[in-house]
Amino acid sequence: MIKKHALRLLILSTLSFFLVSAQGNRVWIKHLPKKTTAYSLDSENNIFLGYANGNLQKISIDGSEPEPFSIPNQSSITLVEAQNNRKIFLFYRDIQQIMILDRFSTIPKKYDMQSFGIDYAESACISPDGTFWVAENNPQRLKKIDPLRNVVIHEVQHNLGDSISIMRTFGNQLLIADENGLQILDQFGNLNGRILMKGISYLQILNNYVYLTLPAGLVTVDPYKSKILEEVEIDLFKGKNAIMKLKNEFVVIDDENLALISLTKPKK
Predict the structure, then answer these.
(1) Alpha carbon 13 to its chain's center
(2) pLDDT digits 0-9 by tens, 137-151
(3) Position with higher pLDDT, 12 vs 230
(4) pLDDT tens digits for range 158-179
(5) Fewer beta carbons within 10 angstroms: which end of the chain, N or C?
């Protein structure tokens, strides 16, 4: 067991050294019309960007825009979750509303927080079973909502941060990033673990790992052990709003641009 653990640490250290040492190169870069407020990646590696004026933009991995979205809502998009690209989840903090864009329906489904007895939700996200997790601000508590029955099915008081940057579900786990770091909770909202770090702006789940965007770069976390596995700090990653990991490339978003970056050397 000791030898296996040492070998694993050696592999991670070698990989980290390679990534940090790599200069990286841009495959393509796209100028954004405005600063984005929310980001997500679907299962086909399409990129979804939310804006302060309520617009939602979809960009393919080759940089093209396959289809525009026309949403009858001019409020800022706080969070977008497009992993299930048949039902895209949007949360609007300003107007306290959840919207589901259903591929098979031309009319978006809207859910107002007040209809669930919630005066103010700091954040919200969707679970794999279609229920919603909502983080209520005052008092601080988590509620799980069944939108089909329009009822709260679970509620637990929990010490949340003052500013939640992003929420995501991961199987039966709930992940919450606030100003203090990452909280990892179970399916009932009980705290399983915590990663203390400042400035998380984006959270991605890929291949059973969690990837966190921080001012210094990209951090990989094992959510089952609440443990940091890897930190990648290169110039192309510093000060970015979101870093999305693909198989061999990264989507990087800042205030003005969206770029596809490869850390491998191009073939001659």
Answers:
(1) 26
(2) 888 999 999 999 999
(3) 230
(4) 988 888 999 999 989 999 999 9
(5) C
d(CA 90, CA 81): 7
Number of other residues whose CB lies within 10 A of the CB of residue 226: 15
Cβ atoms of 158 and 189 within 8 Å: the answer is: yes
Cβ 262 vs Cβ 29: under 8 Å: no
Quote the distance between the C-alpha of residue 148 and its chain's center: 25
Q: Are 196 and 214 in contact (CB under 8 A)?
A: no
CB 179 within 8 A of CB 161: yes
Label each residue of 52-120 as H, E or C: CCCCEEEECCCCCCCCECCCCCCCCCCEEECCCCCEEEEEECCCCEEEEEECCCCCCEEEEHHHHCCCC
Q: Quick one: DSSP state of residue 265?
A: P
What's the rounded Cα separation, in Å, for the pair 135 and 79? 13
239 has pLDDT over 70: yes
